[in-house]
Every structure is written in structure tokens, then in C-alpha cells.
Specification:
The chain has 4 helices and 16 strands. The protein has a 16-stranded mixed sheet that branches. The N terminus is likely disordered. It is mainly beta.
């Protein structure tokens, strides 16, 4: 695998500064906004849409999906929370909605403008949960627009699992609000049916000395386009963004990350890994990190690795790092895409391991580091089983 790790490189897009605390995307010229009208209908030539097959978004990008929203049941959301956690269904006027940041593309703005009720999960300050909060998003076959807020108080610790299954056309915004010194781990699993379409913006506002860990796992869906974002509300915050995706025949899976280092002495670490197999399997990973002039003492790194298992699969991997101050601890990025390693396979087969089993061992080893970040044994076992099922299907 080739490896490219230039530190201090400059992105090739324009910068739109919308205000002192409004997150920006160094490669997107459109401003962040709650108003759909502020975003023109994309045509696929725009930098932020050039990899996305717009015709497969089922009208989420041009407003025509609104006409279908009343025809289907959309999605069913169920929250299971330990004692002490507050779960609310609130209206659009709730002060916590939109607190993490504004939508940054037309679909996210459409989702924000179209939801009727939002789900808010609140963990009180000084609370350490011993069991995860579980949010089940079950597709019911229709079009839906959703909004979810996860709020964790100062010096609390919690794990939240958001599990997407079934079939739906879903556009959503998810906000994570971390109080000072809080520790939040979020595992978002996209285990949709093969016919689902899912787009979402995930925005984390990280408080002083708080720690945010995100693990995104994407398997199913016809098209999945996720936009994880991190904004620091005060110095000393840490963010770890991990991702695992397995892209199969005809699937389009796109992960577009943005980490906005706008506060001093914050840290971020990004590691995403993907495997692809089958005709027209397409994975896209965009990793944007911006270190602003005020963000002295920043330490950041991002890494993307892709393993191509068969002919006919395509990967687009674009890391970007923009630095506006020289007073940093460290900054770098790397991206590598390679084919299945025949030498590893030969090594295992030479020791009596059958070819199919050797193939599973190599892929499982490729993903092990990320699966272990989840920290929930039954979920880890489920995801490993899913990976092996994907490999068995390709052999069959």
C-alpha cells in the first residue's frame, strides 16, 4: 500500500467564515444555515457533491422527497436508557436544538426544516452510567426527517448506541452536547436493508477538557452519506473518530468528516477503515481538519485505510489538513488503498489454513483495532459476525 503523510498541507477549496463560533468547512464555500433556501439544489459538480450519485438520494437533495414523507411510516425510534437518564420528545422551539451547530449542506438543512418532533436524551452532571443508552431506529419503508440530541452533563460518563435497521429514506441531524469534563462514547451502526437511503450530519460540541469518542459502523443501505463534525467549545477537549465500513455490490457509502480546531490545546485523532467487494461498490472518505490561528497547542492526526477485495470496486479517499498557526504539537494525515494481500493469504494457506478461512482471518485482523474501540462485547461479536457473513456471501 502506498502511504502519503504530508503535514501542514493546504486544502484546495474556499473558506467561508460565517462567524466567530460557527463551524466552517475548509472545502465547502456554502455557509452553514438552518434555511434550505441558502443552499442551491446540487447538480453533482459541486466539490461537496461530486462523489455522490444524486439520482439515488430519492429527492432528499431537491425537495421532492417532502411529497413522499406523508405516504410512508418513515422510521420508528425507541430509546432504552438506564435509571437517571431523561428521555424527552420535544418541539422545534426547544433551546437545545441547533446548539451544536448549523446544517452545512442542503440535505441537512432540509432535515432540520422538516422534522416535527425531536428526541432529546439527557445524562445529568456527575453521573457515570454502567449500561449504555440504546437508541433503535427501525426503518418502516417510508421517507422520514429526524432530529436527535444527546446531552451529557459536566463530569459525567456515558455510552450511547444508535442502531439503524430496516428500510427507509432518512435524512437526519444528530447533535452531541458535552459538558465540561464529560466523557461520551457514541456507536452509530448503519445495518440497513440493501434498499435504504440514509444521510445524516452528526455534530459534536465538546466542552472544556471533555472527551468525545465516535465509532461509526456502516454495512447496509443502497446509499449512506454521513457527515461527522467536531467543534470545540472550550480549551482542552479531545475527540476520537473511528469508522468501519464494508461496501458491497452496488452500494455507495460516503463518510465526510470535519474537525474544527478553533480552541487552544485540543486534540483529535481520526481512524477510518473500509473493505470493498463486488461490482460498482463505491466508498468515499473525505477527512477535513482545520487548525485555526487561535488553536495553539493542537495535536491532530487522521488516517484512512481501504482494502479492495475484488475487481469492480472503487475508492475515493481525500484527506485535507489546513493549518493557520505554527504553534502546534503535531499534525498529519495519511491515506492508503490497496488490494487484498496475496502474500498474507499464501502464508496462512502454507500452514494448512483453507483459503476461505485465511481470507476471513486477514480481513478480520484488518478491522480488529476498530471493533475493539466499541467496548460492548455483544455488539463487537455481532459486527464481527456481520463481516464474516459479507465474506461468505462473496465466496458463494
Amino acid at each position: 500500500m502506498a502511504d502519503n503523510t504530508p503535514a501542514g498541507s493546504t486544502t484546495d477549496g474556499a473558506i467561508q467564515v460565517g462567524g466567530a463560533k460557527q463551524p466552517i468547512d475548509a472545502r465547502v464555500s456554502a455557509p452553514a444555515s438552518y434555511d434550505v433556501a441558502d443552499f442551491p439544489v446540487p447538480h453533482g459538480r459541486e466539490e461537496e457533491w461530486r462523489f455522490t450519485p444524486l439520482e439515488r438520494l430519492r429527492g432528499l437533495h431537491d425537495g421532492t422527497a417532502l411529497e413522499k414523507a406523508a405516504d410512508g411510516a418513515g422510521v420508528k425510534v425507541e430509546v432504552t436508557a438506564p435509571e437517571g437518564v431523561t428521555v424527552e420528545t420535544v418541539g422545534r422551539d426547544d433551546s437545545r436544538i441547533g446548539k451544536a451547530g448549523k446544517p452545512v449542506d442542503r440535505v441537512a438543512a432540509q432535515a432540520y426544516s422538516s422534522f416535527e418532533k425531536a428526541s432529546v436524551v439527557s445524562i445529568p452532571k456527575d453521573t457515570v452510567l454502567t449500561e449504555p443508552v440504546r437508541i433503535a431506529v427501525q426503518g418502516q419503508g417510508g421517507v422520514a426527517f429526524g432530529h436527535q440530541v444527546i446531552e451529557i452533563g459536566a463530569f459525567s460518563e456515558a455510552v450511547v448506541v444508535i442502531d439503524h435497521t430496516g428500510d427507509a429514506t432518512l435524512a437526519a441531524n444528530v447533535e452531541y452536547l458535552l459538558g465540561d469534563g464529560a466523557k461520551l462514547t457514541v456507536v452509530s451502526v448503519q445495518d440497513w436493508d440493501d434498499t435504504a437511503v440514509h444521510t445524516a450530519q452528526h455534530t459534536a460540541l465538546v466542552g472544556r477538557d471533555a472527551t468525545f469518542k465516535s465509532v461509526i459502523v456502516t454495512f447496509g443501505g443502497d446509499l449512506v452519506r454521513l457527515h461527522p463534525r467536531v467543534v470545540y467549545g472550550a480549551p482542552g477537549g479531545e475527540a476520537e473518530l473511528y469508522g468501519l465500513y464494508f461496501t458491497d455490490n452496488g452500494q455507495h457509502q460516503e463518510h465526510r468528516l470535519f474537525v474544527d480546531h478553533d480552541m487552544p490545546h485540543c486534540r483529535s485523532n481520526v481512524v477510518f477503515k473500509g473493505a470493498l467487494q463486488g461490482k460498482d461498490a463505491h466508498a468515499v472518505w473525505i477527512g477535513d481538519v482545520l487548525i485555526r490561528a487561535a488553536a495553539e497547542g493542537t495535536d491532530t492526526y487522521e488516517l484512512n485505510r481501504n482494502l479492495v477485495l475484488t475487481d469492480g470496486a472503487r475508492v475515493d479517499s481525500v484527506p485535507n489538513l489546513e493549518i493557520e498557526t505554527g504553534e502546534i504539537v503535531g499534525a498529519g494525515h495519511a491515506s492508503a488503498t490497496g488490494r487484498f494481500d496475496d502474500e498474507q493469504l499464501f502464508y496462512l494457506m502454507a500452514r494448512g489454513i483453507p483459503a476461505d478461512e485465511a481470507r476471513r482471518l486477514v480481513v478480520r485482523g484488518f478491522f480488529t483495532e476498530l471493533v475493539q474501540q466499541i467496548g460492548i462485547p455483544e455488539l463487537e461479536e455481532r459486527l464481527i459476525a456481520k463481516i464474516e457473513a459479507e465474506l461468505e456471501a462473496s465466496v458463494a
